[in-house]
Specification:
This protein has 308 residues and is α/β, with parallel strands linked by helices. The protein contains 12 helices and 9 strands. Strands 1, 2, 3, 4, 5, 6, 7, 8 and 9 form a 9-stranded mixed beta sheet that branches. This is Glycosyltransferase family 2 protein.
């Protein structure tokens, strides 16, 4: 018989935060779950820290592998999962104690709900709150909304019904940055509902490093993402491609605030965003205008907080 929930935690050189992350899972008010940590070739103390948890809680499992990247690591964890629902949690993020309880209540009585998610609270690297919450759409989600942006913010915010994976497969290993957004979009395109709840359920740690600081790679990944979507939802790309690209270029401009002291980079991406589809100024005037003002005034501003 399947467990209700399998929690998959991909971990690469995660010694700084993995204990806090595991503690946040083991503190859940809903307790019928297993935790699968997939150690993706870490060279630090990640493995030994997780091995300590193996001795203290038999719900925790550890899989060690050579370094294969985030998508393949999540896939490895999912393949080993025994649960009716698969939950993902990055090794530096945290769950609030009622996370699983809220999501399972959301799934109850909604047989076409494929992915449940909630609000995200952003925190600084040291774990202190920024005071900023995600503001994404939660209800009435159509494929184009998931094409425009990653409404879930982070894979740590996703609880997925097992049947979704059985029908559509898993994360695309050819993508590195948009693999979660593409999976959420594909889920919606194949007839499953993707829907959120108002509860704040995840704390997402902001870091300046990682893929989000390598702006030169982000757009290439988005282009691959768009090509993937075109293969199974050509009408979505044809109708919404220009606007989706505009939103993504605005996103890169916003990310540039964290990783560069120059306003030139952000302005370049904002110009291209408005050239792709200037109507984002009308549809999301506040976020678009604030991003434009922020990149223009970058030399005068302290390090930026996320805009949601």
């Amino acid at each position: 018989m399947l467990l209700p929930v399998s929690v998959v935690i991909p971990a690469y050189n995660a010694e700084r935060f993995i204990a806090q992350t595991l503690d946040s899972v083991l503190a859940q008010t809903f307790t019928a779950f297993e935790v699968i940590v997939v150690n993706d070739g870490s060279t630090d103390e990640t493995q030994s820290i997780v091995e300590h948890y193996l001795l203290t809680d038999d719900r925790v499992r550890l899989i060690n592998q050579s370094n294969q990247g985030i998508s393949a690591t999540r896939q490895r964890g999912k393949a080993a999962a025994k649960g009716d629902f698969i939950a993902f949690l990055d090794a530096d993020d945290l769950w609030l104690p009622h996370n699983l309880e809220v999501h399972l209540r959301h799934f109850a009585g909604h047989p076409k709900l494929g992915i449940s998610f909630g609000r995200v609270e952003f925190m600084h690297l040291d774990g202190t709150p920024t005071g900023v919450l995600s503001t994404s759409r939660l209800q009435g989600i159509e494929p184009e909304h998931l094409f425009y942006e990653n409404l879930l913010t982070t894979t740590s915010n996703a609880i997925v019904r097992r049947e979704v994976f059985d029908q559509i497969g898993g994360f695309d290993v050819d993508l590195c940055g948009t693999e979660d957004q593409e999976f959420f979009l594909r889920t919606c395109c194949f007839g499953w509902n993707v829907e959120g709840v108002e509860d704040v359920l995840v704390r997402y740690r902001i870091t300046a490093g990682g893929l989000s600081s390598r702006l030169d790679l982000l757009e290439d990944d988005w282009l691959r993402f768009s090509d993937k979507v075109k293969a199974y939802a050509p009408a979505v790309v044809a109708q919404h491609g220009a606007k989706s690209r505009a939103y993504f270029l605005r996103y890169i401009a916003r990310r540039s605030l964290r990783v560069s002291d120059s306003r030139t980079i952000g302005l370049r991406f904002m110009r291209r965003a408005l050239k792709s589809d200037w109507t984002i100024l009308l549809q999301e005037p506040r976020r678009t205008t604030l991003t434009l003002l922020a990149v223009c005034c970058k030399p005068l501003l302290p390090r930026s907080r996320p805009s949601g």
